[in-house]
Structure formats: C-alpha cells, structure tokens
Amino acid sequence: MGWTLAEIWEAVAAAQPDRAAVIQGERVITWAQFDARSDALAAHFIAKGMSQQAKVAAFLYNGPEYLESYFAAFKGGFAPVNTNYRYGPEELVYLFDNADAEAIVFHAGFSEMVDQIRPRLPRVKAWVSVAEPGHPTPAWADDYETVVAKIPARRPVRAPWGVSGEDLLLLYTGGTTGMPKGVMWRQDDLFQVLGAGGNAALEIPPATSIEELITRHAAPDHQRPISLIAAPLMHGTGQFSAFISFFNGGSVVVLPSRKFDAMELWNEVERLKATGVVLVGLAFSTPMLEALDANPGRWDLSSVRSMSSSGSMWSYENKRGLLRHIPAAVIADSFGSSEAVGLGASASAAGAEAQTAAFMLGPNTAVFTEDGRRVVPGSGERGLVAVTGFLPMGYYKDEAKSAGTFKIIEGIRWSVPGDWAEVNTDGTLKLLGRGSVCINTGGEKVFPEEVEEALKRHAAVRDAVVIGVPDARFGERICAVVEPEAGEAPTLSDLSEHVRTQLAGYKAPRELVVVDSIGRAPNGKVDYKAVKERALAALGAAA
After folding, report:
1. Which of 15, 80, 128, 26 is nearest to 242 (CA)?
2. Quick check: is 341 in a domain?
3. Same domain, yes or no: 484 and 520
4. Alpha carbon distance 20, 252 (integer Å)
5. Total number of domains in the chain
6. Alpha-helical regions (H) of 30-88
7. What distance in Å separates the CA atoms of residue 231 and residue 276, rounded to the nearest whole number?
8. Are residues 38 and 112 located together in one domain of the fold?
9. CA distances from 476 to 61, 376, 471 (A)
10. Co-location of 68 and 171 in the same domain
C-alpha cells in the first residue's frame, strides 16, 4: 500500500533508540521516547473512539509535542492537521470545522480561547492540553504528559484498520487571499516528493525499502543531520524539513523561545553543532546576518553545511553576507508551495551566490500560458508555473478550488498554484508573483513582489509590501508600505526614484505609508488584504 511515515519512523527508532529525535533547549527526546510517547498518544485517540482517517489538529507552538502528535496520528491511521497559532476564535472554528477535527492537541496557554469555541465543535472527541508554566491543563481536557506516560503493553499501536500509504496529511494554507484550504497529501506521495530518503543534489537515489533506508543510516559515511528548524512547524517549510531530517535518521532542533531571536539561534547552532538551519527568507535571515555582523567570530559555526528556505524572498545580498561568515555552507533557496513542492530551486556557495528570486526549473516543472502553451525560454512571454509528478490529491472538501489548481495539461496532471513567471534564455525563472495580488494600473500588470524586491535594496528600507490603491484615472496606483531601518525616514520621491533605476516607471510607487512593522506571519508571508486595509486607512482612502 506504499510508504507510511509511522512505519518509517518506527524503524528509525528501533535502529537508534538512544539517539536524539527532538531537542528543545535542555529537553532531549530520544528516538525510543519519541516512539513510545507517540504510541501512548495514539492509543489515547483510539480509546476515544476516533474513526479511520479522523483529523488530529495540532494547535501548538514548536516543540516535541508537535511532532509526537503527528507521529501518533500516523500510527493510528488518522490524518494530522496544522493549525496557525495566531488564529482568533472565528478562524479556529472555521479550520477545525472544515477539517472535521476529532482531536485537538493544544498548548494550555490557548485554553481560554479553546474553551470559548468548544460548544461549536461537536465532532471533537479528544481535547489534549500541553501544560505550561502558569497555564495548567483545564479540567475539561486530558493532560498531555499524563497521556504519553501510559506506554501501552502492545506496540506499535495500531487501530483495527491499520496504516496505509493512502493515509493523509492535511496541510492548511492561507495563501494571500480567501479562507484556508486543506491540501491533501497522501503519505506515499509526500515521502516520495521529499526525496524518499535520497538526495538528488548529492546523487543519492531514493530508497526502495525501509530496510535499505535503515542500512544507509548505518553506513560509516552517512552523516545524520542535526537540523535546527527555526521556521514554524505549523507551516510546510518547517514541517517538511523536519520530516526529511527524520527520514535520514537525524535530529530535529527547535528553539527554546517562541519569539525568534537570532542570538539564541546561533547559540544553539554552536552548542548542538547543527549541520543545517531551516529559516524563512529575509524575515529570519536579516536579523541572523545582523547578529553575525555585530559579533564577528563569536560563534563556531563550522558544523553548518546548509541553510535553507522556501516560500519567501531571500536576497542575493543577504546570502552573500551569510556566506561571508559561514563560507563552507551551501544555501538552498526553494520555490514551492503547500500544493506544489519542487517548482524550482537555487543553490549558493561562497563566491557563487544566486541572484534574488532566480530559480532553475525543477525536473518536473514547466511554465504554461493561460491557454495551455509552454512558454518558450527567452520569449518574454508570461505564464503560470506548474509542477507534475507526486502531487496532492486536491483541497479537502473543495472540488471547485481543486479543479482550479490541479489541471490536466498535455494529458498530464499538474499543480498550478498561481505563480506567474517568465523563462529566461538560460532556463531560469524570472518570478513575477501571485496573480491573486497583481495590481492593474492603467492596463499594465504589476506584480507586488517585483517592486518589493527593488524597494528592499534601498539602504533605508528594512521591509516593504506593495499594494494597489484606488485611482480614478488608472484604476489602481502603486502604494509602498515600508518598514524603515532604525533611524531612517525614507521619502516617497527617494523610493520612487530608486525603483525607477531598476524597473519600468509605471512600477514606481505613487503613495507611501511608513509603519513600525510590516507584521509578517511566522512563515514570513504577508496578509495582503490586512496590509491594504491598513494602508487605505492611513491614506484616508476608500477601498
């Protein structure tokens, strides 16, 4: 029935029980503990009467409990569901109801909010609370540590229906507009698209069996990764990166603090001799570089072999700066999304840094015009980036949106998430952005990301978002929402002239709103709708 993550991780645990699986500060969960605690949680879910492929929502910050909840779901033949911990009550009700959640594992700090919405979620059979200092488990929930301490006598734990490669993982993605959508990944497809224990860059082929995978881990030249996942596990970048580390017999490190702290990150890299750092574009890499520049030579970072990011812009200048401090590392910048893994990639090494947003097309990637023609490299024609191969089944309970994203082109099924691009003569992509936030000014299409990249190259700009605001003549005009560097006060004329040196004049901002913080989500992404409402209010304009 295909690869199942429960069986893969159980085999890893049996082969290396005393190695660390998850590390957070002084907490070290060995592979044996990871397996046993997850068995106990799976048994708890089964005892609660949960049904086959029932959804297990993880309403949690980064920590061992996040990955244990997923492991337990896989063992029980249930489907795990990520939950954005920034959501308010109405967004949570929508998510849990849309996902048909039957179990919710949550940090006790969220108890008051969860208690508000419990009466509106009659499907939920199991409430499991992870107690925190100052936040004990509420009376109406089961205590997480009490549950996972009850190790079952018969292991591994399985429900009567067992496990299958057809079992799902639901990855809810908010995108830039609309309500969250649950991307349905079959476990077999997910394992395959994440490399199946191989590494294309190192010419290591996918494994053909669990036995082969475990044999590889035992080879003298196999280096088990120690992956510091700074990105939130509630998003695909962090989650899938953790899975890849596990597939290779490695350890996942998450930061002790809940608010990103670059100094803490580098302290942990040095302390644990992390081999890889997973981040989210400039939202993380900017303070990381600032910490290194302010403290040259403070940390021994010789263990770091890779730094990787996906789903957010990562500038050439920042990559070059990081590699100046860690010259032996390789930077892997991936272009993809929850429903389209492997659209493109770029690799940077010291002295050979990839340009901002310059990606090579993946082996299963193409760019198509809206009428289904392939874009010819160097033609200047714009198209939508698509990927084929191992793909999700679609969006949970949304056939219309599934049909809009997963399309048959040239007789093959593709995922087309909505990213516009041109194909350069050398085969690299020139990314333009998502059509859903494209600005139409005087008949010209302007993709915000292109202008944002130009703005961020200005010395006075720390972060920027570009939106369209109403214009009586042109329909929309370009507005730059800018978070300046400390002590800087960029003007509209300065920024417009700066953009004109790089892009066509019609792409230069006509309005400027300066803010203390852009307010990016933990995955580095922007809620364009919220930013637009904020900018319109500041400008005194109507939507």
Report:
1. 80
2. no
3. yes
4. 8
5. 3
6. 31-47, 64-76
7. 12
8. yes
9. 39, 31, 5
10. yes
Q: In this structure, are 49 and 148 located in the same domain?
A: yes
Instruction: Give, as one character, the DSSP assignment of residue 188.
Output: H
When pLDDT is cut at 50, 70 and 90, the band that residue 528 belongs to is confident
Which of 74, 57, 69, 71 has its CA nearest to residue 110? 57
Within 13 Å of residue 269, how many CA atoms lie on the same side as its CB?
26
Residue 232 zone, left/alpha/beta (φ > 0; ψ -120 to 50; rest)? beta
Of 433, 448, 477, the position where a domain reaches its end is 433
What is the 3 state secondary structure string of 83-101?
Answer: CCCCCCHHHHHHHHHHHCE
Domain presence at residue 330: no
Cα→Cα distances 35→15, 232, 437, 449, Å: 12, 22, 44, 43
Judged against a pLDDT cut of 80, whether residue 435 lies above it is answered with no
Alpha carbons 364 and 357: distance in angstroms, whole number:
19
Most distant pair of Cα atoms in the chain: their distance: 73
Q: What stretch of H or E contains 181?
A: strand 181-186
Please give the helix or strand (H or E) that residue 287 lies within, else none: helix 281-294
445 located within any domain: yes
* Nearest residue to 148 via CA among 135, 165, 126, 130: 130
Domain of residue 506: give its range. Answer: 438-539
pLDDT band at 529, cuts 50/70/90? confident
182 and 33 within one domain: yes
Cα 465 from Cα 456, distance rounded (Å): 9
pTM of the model: 0.86
The predicted structure's pLDDT at residue 542: 56
Instruction: Kindly report, residue by residue over 262-286, the tens digit of the pLDDT.
Output: 999 999 999 999 999 999 888 899 8
Whether 353 is covered by a domain: the verdict is no
pLDDT at 81 (0 to 100) = 98
For residues 249-257, give the mean pLDDT. 97
Distance of alpha carbon 249 from alpha carbon 9, whole angstroms: 9
Asked whether the predicted pLDDT for residue 213 surpasses 90, the reply is: yes
176 in the same domain as 73: yes
Q: What are phi and psi of 421, to 5 degrees?
A: -160, 165
Contact (CB, 8 A) for 207 and 216: yes
Beta pairing class for 419-423 and 383-387 = antiparallel
Residue 235 has pLDDT above 80, yes or no: yes
Give me the residues paired with residue 279 across strands. Answer: 309
Written as six digits, the tokens of 292 are 């290194």
- Residue 333 confidence (pLDDT) above 80: yes
Residues 61 and 117 in one domain: yes
176 pLDDT more than 50: no
